[in-house]
Design a protein that fits this description.
Radius of gyration: 17 Å
Strand content: 5-15%
Helix content: 40-55%
Number of helices: 7
Distance between the termini: 30 Å
Largest sheet: 3 strands, antiparallel
Order of helices and strands: EEHHHHEEEHHH
Number of strands: 5
Oligomer: single chain
Low-confidence stretches: 1-35
Shape: globular
Strand order of the largest sheet: 4-3-5
Length: 231
Amino acid sequence: MSAALLRTSTVRNALRAGAPTISRPAGIAGMSFVRGKATLPDLPYDYGALEPAISGRIMELHHKNHHTTYVNSFNAASEQFAAAEAKADIAAQIALQPLVKFHGGGHLNHSLFWENLAPKSSGGGDPPAGALATAIDETYGGLDAFKTRFNAALAGIQGSGWAWLVKDKDTGNIEIKTYANQDPVVGKYVPLLGVDAWEHAYYLDYQNRKAEYFKAIWDVVNWKVAEKRFV
């Protein structure tokens, strides 16, 4: 593994009106596309590189199986949407929008998530620096207080979803926000750092002890990527 990620820019309004076409303004790497189709990005580290926080077995299943399903299903829904659009079948386009949003969101969220992680040997777990560190201190009173608030948000998710540290494009302020299922961070917010709270992200390692997973993942968080997204 350890192949370099294909570097393209982020997705703005990826799911606007359920449309399958994806544009890429600057800001976030990790998406790879072939002739308009989403493809599974390579990880920038080996599956076992995040142990003991996240096992190699979970990383392989999560990346190779779950993320691949989102990619393939998004591409299939996008093709169906394009066919419906070509036939001016408005009802079919509307019916397909939830699939485009769910699977497209799953692809976007996971592509960002992999980059949010790094082995300890590559800086995983090191505290944030620069402007983002200052923003965290000013907003939450320090990194430890931020982690407590973030983990509380994760624990409050009912069912499946994500917690994100985001930047408000209008104000420049940072916030902790939760999203259900695979809803992506779009619109007025820039995703800086996200944690997957779906059971498939932790259950093989932690079973029903998800609070342990929420605590352990900070040992492999890659703040360098979040800092770049914050600029």
